[in-house]
Amino acid sequence: MPKTETSTRTVAAQDRLVLALDIDDREEALALVSELKASVGMFKVGHQLFTAYGPDIVRSITSAGGNVFLDLKYHDIPNTVAKAAAEAVKLGVSIFNVHALGGLDMMRAAAESAREAAGKQDLPVPLILAVTVLTSMDDAAIRKELKINRSLRREVAHLARLAQRAGLHGVVASPQEISMLRRTVRGRFVIPYARRTAGVGRPGRPETDHDAGRSGRGRC
């Protein structure tokens, strides 16, 4: 049987802080881990750092005492995502994510595979989060580009419910949507918010500490 899932543990204040290692230098990344691992709960490894250094950068961070949020947003056929989820578990990450637009079967395959791999390896089951709609997109974009006719907020709510039904632990959201999601999704469901780097991407939905504060949720 897998160890107790990380979603059941008490969350300390520092554990709510995730530092994004959005850099392309291995030594700089590991220096940040060494300096800040006692002050933040987790380090986010995204496409840039992972593409540059592969799984070894994750192993180096965990070996140095840092927890890892593997931010690769898996989005593929269910079997492929299931295999990727199992490998994420073996890497010892604390959180990884998938795209909710991959559908119910894909998300369910990720959740089931992660639990099975954790049981076989006697490892904790990572938190699995779904990305609903990228925060760089707004109502106009989802209607014009994705041909989704319902409003962005309704689409986010629908995908969050789908993620919960698939057995995932939560979703990544814009601060504008947190209060709505708290009303929409019942039970224990993690909703960290995504904060965009200033000046990057199109306007999308604003992501500020002020927005999050009004929504009653701290930064994650």
State the gist of this model.
This protein is an alpha/beta fold and about 220 residues long. Helices cover about 40% and strands about 10% of the residues.
Give a written overview of the molecule.
The chain is α/β, with parallel strands linked by helices and 220 residues long. The chain contains 9 helices and 6 strands; from the N terminus they run βαβααβαβαβααβαα. It has helices at residues 26-36, 47-53, 55-63, 78-91, 104-121, 139-144, 152-165, 178-184, 209-214; strands at residues 18-20, 42-45, 68-74, 95-99, 127-131, 170-172. The protein has a 6-stranded parallel beta sheet with strand order 1-2-3-4-5-6. Helix 4 (78-91) runs parallel beside helix 5 (104-121). The two termini are 29 Å apart.
List the main descriptive attributes of the protein structure presented here.
220 residues; alpha/beta; 6-stranded parallel β-sheet; 9 helices; 6 strands; disordered C terminus
Structural class: alpha/beta
Number of helices: 9
Shape: globular
Strand order of the largest sheet: 1-2-3-4-5-6
Rounded mean pLDDT score: 86
H/E element string? Answer: EHEHHEHEHEHHEHH
State the helicity in percent bands.
Answer: 40-55%
Task: Tell me the quaternary state.
Answer: single chain
Beta-strand content: 5-15%
Question: Which sheet architecture does the biggest sheet show?
Answer: 6 strands, parallel
As residue ranges, the low-confidence spans are 4-9, 196-203, 208-220
Task: Itemize the secondary structure elements and their pairings.
Elements: E1 18-20, H1 26-36, E2 42-45, H2 47-53, H3 55-63, E3 68-74, H4 78-91, E4 95-99, H5 104-121, E5 127-131, H6 139-144, H7 152-165, E6 170-172, H8 178-184, H9 209-214
Parallel strand pairs: 1-2, 2-3, 3-4, 4-5, 5-6
Helix pairs in contact: 4-5
